[in-house]
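This entry is set out below.
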Amino acid sequence: MNPNIIFLLIDGFRADRCYGKQKTAYTPNIDKLIESGTYFTQVISPADGTTLSLNGIFNGVYPFRTGTRQKKMFLEETNFLNKIKNLNYNTYSIMPKFTSLSPLSENSENDDTWYNPGPPTESISGELGERIIRMISDRKMEQAWFYYIHIFDLHSPLRVPNNFDHEKFGMNKYDKIISSIDAWIGKLLDKIDIKNTLFILTADHGTHLPVDDKDVTSFEPQFESTIKTGKKLIPKSIQPAGAKAIIGMKKAIRNIRLVNANKNLTPYEKRSRLPYFTLSLFDESIHVPLLISGFKVPKKIVKQQVSSIDIFPTVFDILKFEYDNSTIHGKSLVPLLRDEMIRELPVYINSMPYEKESSQDIVGIRTSSYKYFRFARDPKKLVNLYNLDIDPYENNNISLSHPEIVSKMEDILTKLTSEPESESISHDSDEDDEIDEEELKEIQEELKKHGYI
């Protein structure tokens, strides 16, 4: 019989908070899974936001194939979820209730796929966590099954469970919540036979975290009693006629404070102070964890750069399932599990789009040595280039001093995005045939509720 598969996606989980020296969370269960399985230290998400990232993961292709301005998940006919179902797997899921994720919900056997994302979100430490585990412990799922679990605890506003609000669980709220998620993972592992289960843990994207402050709260957007006016948050009690003047004064005061607060800080430290949802292709937003453990997975730490779109090709290869790899960008990483060499490929990266076209819509390429990105609609604007070997925190933009490297990276980007099967996809496209007006309105309201637009 084929093994069961648990695909655990922790929304907004940064790689450096899962493994490495910057991790302060207490995670004995994740650590045990890493020790007994394979952990990839350099996994790059194709996007800094959920929709495009999941499109890449489940389709095994980069966002320019499925559309770079998608507001709702798009599953191609050849997506890996369909492939799993065709292999007689029963597919189940639990995820935050977002219209943009509905294609995943519609492909699940269970009717109760949704939970309330808030804010604040339903926490994995409460009834939600018990509900997810009951799906397994009550044997409601027929074997063999694929179980997609999407956790939203790390989204603002952060809420630490009372019993984890202690420094031993982390130096800030974000890390303390990771500790609480790890404790829940321990309960989940108690209910499964890990030797006959393939366990995948990853994230869709990372996030900004203050590097000079123990308390993340002071940098979270304020959701309560506010409305958004442009890019600023103002109290609802302010009348529209006086809003511009007050916003102007607040902006001036804020700029003065910002200059003083940012004095002597590195660009990385300054970026850490940005609001939670700020479009960014810096590594804090796209460097994610990937852990594969359980069924026939060797003990291994893999340091070669790979992409999230490689996850399902690797899973299929581990399980010896056939698939057509000629139509996807993702590749199997199983040779790396066997200590075999495979060619390291550049990873395409694309920012999540704002509601309307913006100068912050950016695309780029990451290799293990360089990060390159620029404005999506003009290769001469917003050009950034970083030498990751000597500048891993991306503090020094060297695009002006190294035009020859910019040219090489642009050639890689152009060649990849001009492949024959993707010629019909445009970066400038606002088309979304899968979304009607009612769905679009729902998506916009959900994004506003969570401070994204």
The CA atoms of residues 29 and 189 lie 9 Å apart. The longest strand covers residues 287-294. Residues 347-449 form a domain with the Arylsulfatase, C-terminal domain fold (CATH 3.30.1120.10).
